[in-house]
Design a protein that fits this description.
2 copies of one chain form a homodimer. In chain A, the strands form 2 sheets. Chain A has a 7-stranded mixed beta sheet with strand order 7-9-6-10-8-11-12, sandwiched between helices. In chain A, strands 1-2-5-3-4 form a 5-stranded mixed beta sheet. The longest helix of chain A is centred in the N-terminal third of the chain and has 17 residues. Chain A folds into 2 domains: 111 residues, PurM-like, N-terminal domain (60s Ribosomal Protein L30, Chain: A), CATH 3.30.1330.10; 142 residues, Alpha-Beta Complex (Phosphoribosyl-aminoimidazole Synthetase, Chain A, domain 2), CATH 3.90.650.10. Chain A is built from 8 helices and 12 strands. The first copy, chain A, is α+β, with helices and mostly antiparallel strands and 287 residues long. At the A-B interface, α1, β1, β2, β3 and α3 of A face α1, β1, β2, β3 and α3 of B.
Chain lengths: 287, 287
């Protein structure tokens, strides 16, 4: 049993629409408010060697990334911290606060709990004009498939390429870029936190269209043998780049360094160089 | 080290104002939006014998209670579920959904995580007219101190009085009452989830005034020896009644069954029958 299979259970109970995007969307005066929540914890997310400050930073960053992927500006963060050791709290809170400050948000509330391992749940709220909100749906055949930055770096550290520590330990959500892409009118967007492959399968399931990637175009982490680098870029998790679909005529968006990695196709299949892309990446699993 | 001591660390980092109420408050068009987050988990919150459905219900209820205590109407809930056993998910989600539906809210998003014990973090959002928002601050000497319902029942179950199972396992947040009290213009309010005693000490620390309780007036759980029943009512946690301070002339508020248990006094001390009330109740502790 994995995340995506469990999501089917959730969809049956709360409705498909409430599981479709990186954030929920509710009206807020003349604006749209986007809201998202993420649970991270020591065993699976805060790898050995990370400081408490980095655990706090990462917790905020993953949530701000979801807000960015809707084209919204992050405004507020709530943070629930489950602590086995109370001495972690100060570092975690300071890391979360510093990440919020860097990206224009502030911490407005939270909860403290005793837990058997450090567990951090961040809830982020952002605002966006109705016209600039971007969802996972909206991709159309012929659109370019683009990505910001260089995917695969976080997984590269996990595979022993220690020069990529910063990518995994202190992810930089694409907050500025997300809003610029929203204003530029991209058609669909999400972040690639579970890897490009799984993200594209998620996008295919809500759009009904497929994606044809060209492996030659994929930006790859440098200093890694090409075969392994491609594997990392396609299937590695822990990155917070934005994958977006945009009308051919609107690319490039000024101020948002990106790479075209493929196109949207009518047939619902995800391919790379004409061959099916494997549906795997970062997933939780249960027996 | 306990919750309240750790909160001092948090206040230094995120500011005192962001830790002062049961919910954070942000503007939302012409209304105020209130937001709160709570972490619950198997070891400390979901007692043996509770069903998954009840764990989900309780998780939603504690968050809706925080919204009620601001005088707001609950609208939306996000739920992050950390699962050791995936088979819990359906019951937890259904319980949370049923609680939301009963009190006028809906589940709009969430997260699924693998964890070493069932951990549920609910984030609730509510709306309220600016004029009807109630905070913990605003109490004035001479105000009546009132409480809804009968406190101490949840703790009574934990102490072996099993007729109170429903109070602990399926708490009923005072959502309707909270909004009626807000519209009636009560001066200050919070829920008593950590017990009356700790709640009054929390209220004293933000108001600067004290509280004089009359033990004869406290409604007590029935069928329990009086001494023990008073102990439960003052110090027991796990209840979700509303404690509020109101002008003498505004009491009672029609449609909100409540009991006057004391008065607000100028001297910053919490007393019962003229003697200092112990500062204890439901707290997490760390070595």
């Amino acid at each position: 049993m994995d995340d995506r299979e469990l999501l089917q259970i959730v969809m049956r109970i709360v409705g498909k629409d409430n599981c479709a995007d990186d954030c929920a969307v509710v009206p807020c005066g003349d604006l749209e408010m986007v809201i998202t929540t993420d649970m991270l914890h020591r065993t699976t997310d805060f790898v050995p060697g990370m400081t408490d400050w980095q655990a706090g930073w990462m917790s905020a960053a993953v949530t701000l990334s979801d807000i960015a992927s809707m084209g919204a500006a992050p405004k507020y963060l709530l943070i629930a911290v489950g602590l086995d050791d109370w001495k972690c709290l100060e570092g975690v809170m300071q890391g979360a606060k510093d990440c919020c400050m860097q990206f224009g948000a502030s911490i407005i509330g939270g909860d403290i709990d005793r837990h058997n391992e450090l567990t951090v749940v961040t809830t982020g709220l952002g605002l966006v004009d109705k016209d600039h909100l971007v969802r996972r749906t909206g991709a159309r055949p012929g659109d370019l498939v683009c990505i910001t930055g260089t995917p695969g770096q976080a997984q590269a550290w996990l595979d022993g390429y220690l020069q990529f520590e910063k990518a995994l330990f202190e992810p930089q959500p694409r907050v500025r870029e997300g809003q610029m892409l929203g204003r530029a009118g991209v058609n669909a967007m999400m972040d690639d936190s579970d890897g490009i492959a799984l993200s594209l399968y998620d996008l295919m399931s809500v759009n009904g269209y497929g994606f044809a990637l060209d492996s030659q175009k994929l930006p790859l982490p440098v200093g890694i043998p090409p075969g392994h680098a491609l594997e990392l870029a396609l299937y590695g998790g822990g990155d917070y780049e934005l994958i977006y679909m945009i009308d051919r005529g609107k690319f490039p968006v000024e101020g948002v360094p990106s790479t075209v990695i493929g196109t949207v196709v009518a047939e619902p299949a995800v391919t790379v160089d004409g061959r099916p892309l494997e549906k795997r990446g970062y997933q939780h699993r249960w027996e």
